[in-house]
From TrEMBL:
Superkingdom classification of source: Eukaryota
InterPro entries according to UniProt: HotDog_dom_sf, PTE-AB_protein, Thioestr_dom
Protein name: Thioesterase domain-containing protein
Lineage: Eukaryota, Fungi, Dikarya, Ascomycota, Pezizomycotina
Family matches, as PANTHER family: THIOESTERASE FAMILY PROTEIN (AFU_ORTHOLOGUE AFUA_1G10800), UPF0644 PROTEIN PB2B4.06
Record domain Thioesterase: where: 102-175
Organism of origin: Xylaria flabelliformis
Length: 198
């Protein structure tokens, strides 16, 4: 089988060239042990989007349209446990979201962690919506383009309108930690004016 390779400081990432990114991601998710374990929880929901966006808002949505596509971030496979405030999201990262050649721009990691961590805690807040008050990110290893990643988000604590969440991005194939984050999300006093996204 032919492969495409990106070399980075003696680390080589390969992607099968005979499978499209969607098929590759689907196959990976179908056999991933983390998915099998997460599905054992009683209240798990599965979808192909982190957030539920109204049709009229979709054309202007950053992650669902602007960053979407097989050369950027393909549609994720998302698993949520609203009772626990936990989320898993599997993404394919393409070439067109690179900062340095072959390396995914760190801002993409921040955007997707923010979205996944927020969605994880929303069901634990009374109004089921929140905004990011603080997001701290530690970049541990480069995220290579043409790779599949797993984003994890877990609500650690909820006090009134505040939720603290931990998150990470790891290589979906070998589990290598790429990015980790902590965040504080707050249900704003004007929460009733925000469209619901779950």
């Amino acid at each position: 089988m032919a492969t495409n390779s990106v070399k980075l400081n003696d680390v080589v990432q390969t992607a099968p060239s005979d499978l499209d990114p969607e098929t590759t991601l689907q196959s990976l998710v179908a056999s991933h042990p983390v998915v099998a374990d997460f599905r054992q929880r009683p209240a798990v929901k599965e979808s192909r989007s982190v957030l539920r966006i109204n049709d009229e808002d979709l054309p202007n949505h950053l992650t669902c349209t602007t960053l979407a596509g097989s050369d950027m971030t393909g549609r994720p496979y998302v698993f949520t446990d609203d009772q626990a405030g936990s989320l898993l999201a599997f993404y394919h990262f393409g070439n067109k979201i690179a900062g340095h050649t072959g390396i995914v721009h760190g801002g993409i990691a921040g955007v997707l962690l923010d979205e996944c961590m927020g969605r994880a805690c929303f069901p634990r807040l009374a109004g089921q919506i929140g905004v990011t008050a603080k997001l701290e990110i530690e970049y541990k290893n480069p995220i290579l383009a043409q790779s599949e990643v797993l984003i994890r988000a877990d609500t650690v604590e909820v006090q009134g309108r505040k939720a603290w969440v931990s998150g990470s991005i790891e290589d979906a194939r070998d589990g290598k930690l790429l990015v980790k984050a902590t965040g504080l999300f707050i249900e704003p006093r004007w929460a009733a004016d925000i469209p619901k996204v779950m």
